[in-house]
Amino acid sequence: AGTRSLLLLPGDGIGPEVMRQVRRYIDWMARKRGIEFTVEEGLVGGAAIDAQGVPLTDATLEKAKAADAVLFGAVGGPKWDGLGFDMRPEAGLLRLRKELDLFANLRPAKVFDALVDASSLKPDIVRGLDVMIVRELTGGIYFGEPRGIEDLGNGQRRGVNTQVYTTAEIHRVARIAFELARKRGNKVCSVEKGNVMESGLLWRQEVTALHRAEYGDVELSHMLADACSMQLVRNPGQFDVIVTDNLFGDMLSDEAAMLTGSIGMLPSASLGAPDADGRRRALYEPVHGSAPDIAGRDMANPIAMLLSLGMALRWSFDLHAEADMLEQAVQNVLRTGMRTSDIMQPGMARCSTSVMADTILRELDKLAA
Ligand code: NAD
Ligand code: IPM
Ligand code: MN
């Protein structure tokens, strides 16, 4: 099916440790399934700052634009925390999202049966849970102008950020949420704070208008963001698809991670608009960060990164059988009691990043046989 190109951007901290495992799966696909990818690797974040002076070079950005899909590890760390805003590792990721126009970030929080007891919530609350958070990713307070830190001259300073959304930005991300809902539980909950923010009120009005015009068959509800963060831990089963802004989506997805047992379990897909051939720019990234506290110790859970590869197989390459197989392999291995530290439970077998990935690969061999 022609060439499939991937750009790998491992980044910092545990990013390279989990990305190393992804490479092995890509090799496995070529060897065992005859599915070949052209793979390039680039620097981003602190790794790029150290080697190239900036968190993302124009050359790497161009490679990202040209690739069918980008796989992103994680960026950031204490070493670079003192740098100015545009020079921080995180700025590399934000620039990628913005310049590739990846406005929709799909963050599924799915609870594997074997991990029901690994969640900090009661088993009955999380069993069978499958929530999809659709986070707006290129607007809102992350990118609004004016922004900055001003010196007021009297020993005082002022930090400024601007929350701003337009009709078009709201419609395009809400459309993704409605389309996804139609293929799942057919329910969308739109989340904002329209009781205190005009941008939130506009969000609610525009989602309502789009719903009325085109998606009347989908059940739509609205919730204030503070209430939603409460409902997510009280009764998460009420949600199917949640659509929300950049900042609320960031926070609610970390919260949702704990339903599944660990932030080390959550993949995501960041998607752009389809081109004339229906192909979307896409970057796949785990929800977690560079985890400086465990970096370099072969302890990180590689599952979020591997499931992000799974989302790439599905969304960018239509390789649904292979994506299903990968998810099944993860599920089977968790069932055997194999656990990285973050999902460790009494009586289970603790393993390293590489052993977890090895075991999932071997399970894939069995499933593919
Ligand atoms: P984090 O997600 O890196 O870590 C939070 C906690 O979760 C830590 O205790 C960590 O050990 C644990 N954890 C995270 N991923 C794990 C995994 N795969 N397996 C096991 N445990 C895991 O968030 P943080 O500590 O707030 O941020 C650290 C750095 O990462 C910061 O510089 C931040 O800006 C950056 N960050 C980057 C991204 C990204 O690149 N997409 C996302 C979030 C945070
Ligand atoms: C995430 C991260 C990023 C965000 C940071 C690292 C820029 O927390 O992907 O969830 O805030 O979007
Ligand atoms: Mn985050």
Automatic annotation (TrEMBL):
UniProt key word Cytoplasm: yes
InterPro entries xref list: IsoCit/isopropylmalate_DH_CS, IsoPropMal-DH-like_dom, Isopropylmalate_DH
Gene3D superfamilies on file: Isopropylmalate Dehydrogenase
Positions annotated to bind Mg(2+): D226, D250, D254
Record domain Isopropylmalate dehydrogenase-like: where: 5-360
Subcellular location: Cytoplasm
Enzyme class label: oxidoreductase
UniProt-annotated site: Important for catalysis, residues: Y142, K193
A molecular-function term among this protein's GO annotations: magnesium ion binding
Major location (coarse): cytoplasm
EC number: 1.1.1.85
Catalysed transformations (reactions): (2R,3S)-3-isopropylmalate + NAD(+) = 4-methyl-2-oxopentanoate + CO2 + NADH
Source organism superkingdom: Bacteria
Gene Ontology terms: biological process: L-leucine biosynthetic process
SUPFAM superfamilies for this protein: Isocitrate/Isopropylmalate dehydrogenase-like (SSF53659)
Pathway: Amino-acid biosynthesis; L-leucine biosynthesis; L-leucine from 3-methyl-2-oxobutanoate: step 3/4
Cofactors (names): Mg(2+); Mn(2+)
Family: Belongs to the isocitrate and isopropylmalate dehydrogenases family. LeuB type 1 subfamily.
Description of how the protein assembles with itself and partners: Homodimer.
Physiological role: Catalyzes the oxidation of 3-carboxy-2-hydroxy-4-methylpentanoate (3-isopropylmalate) to 3-carboxy-4-methyl-2-oxopentanoate. The product decarboxylates to 4-methyl-2 oxopentanoate.
Name this protein carries in UniProt: 3-isopropylmalate dehydrogenase
Native species: Rhodospirillum centenum (strain ATCC 51521 / SW)
